[in-house]
Amino acid sequence: MNAERSLFVAEGRISEVDLMLIEEQLGPGAGRGGHGEVALPFREPSYVSIGEPVVTRLEPHDGVSAELRHQFDAYEFYQVQLTCSFQAAVGCRFTHARFTAELVTGAEDGHPDAAVSQAIAYDLFPSLLEEARTVTVASQGWGMELSFGFEPVEATLTLPSREWSEERVTYSSRVEAFDLRGTRPAWQFVRTEQREISGPQRLFMLVRKPKGTVVRASFGLRATVQFMLGGQGFAPADLVMLFRSRSRAGELTDRPSAALC
Fold first, then answer.
1. Residue 144 pLDDT more than 60?
2. 206-227 pLDDT per residue, tens
């Protein structure tokens, strides 16, 4: 699904309840095959994956800002690249997704009291990506009525209405970060008219952890899809999925995790 190595991959399918709602919209018997299965591609899975984090330790001489340099006596800083990927089933599209990376701090061997302070997501990128859309608004003025006269004749003239158009630029968020300087950073993805939620998404996090600690990330990835048929969009439905580890003999989990730093 992506060039980076995937740690966890999941097949996402919508629930039986949501399938029943789609059948109701299609009408009696419209979506069933000979064995009671939905003949249309509503049962085909969509795929999501969580990539292996790429972690780089920062040093005071790496050209870091003065704000960070003053903290190196008590903390260590790591740049972490995260990836998640989306591949929708034929005939559907992702409408919303949320990727989380909860930071869990523990003590290193030989530092039993080091885990008093928690690691945090000191910086997140992207923090906000927006799509611009130009909207043309048509406006119309009221007609103007004029009266004029010359004895013994009087007349009234109504001038035609005046029309004009105005262009306005509106913005909609398609990627938005959450919990900056917290322990549960997350990114929300929203489909826009210009962009689909599709393919690999690269995300960056600067982790600050107390010296003498180790940090693991517990990942979460939720997604909502919308099925399309003949230009008609059905109500969005949440995917039901379990992640399969690619490094632990196919172990299934609903809360994948990995060591960070």
1. no
2. 999 999 999 999 999 999 999 8
**Cα(145)–Cα(160) distance, integer angstroms:** 9
Buried b / exposed e across 73-82, counting CB within 10 Å, b at 16+? eebbbbbbbb
pLDDT at 198 > cutoff 70 = yes
φ/ψ of 16, rounded to 5, equals -65, -35
Q: How far is CA 86 from CA 97, 102, 179, in A?
A: 9, 20, 23
Helix (H, G, I), strand (E, B) or coil at 138: strand
Q: Tell me the CA distances in angstroms from 12 to 8, 109, 221, one per residue in order.
A: 13, 39, 11
| Max avg pLDDT among 113-117, 141-145, 193-197 | 193-197
196 burial via Cβ count (<10 Å: 0-12, 13-18, 19+): middle
- Where do we find the tokens 């095959």? 33
Residues in the chain: 261
What ranges in 11-163 are assigned the alpha helix state H?
16-26, 66-69
If phi over 0 gives left and psi between -120 and 50 gives alpha, with beta otherwise, what is residue 16? alpha
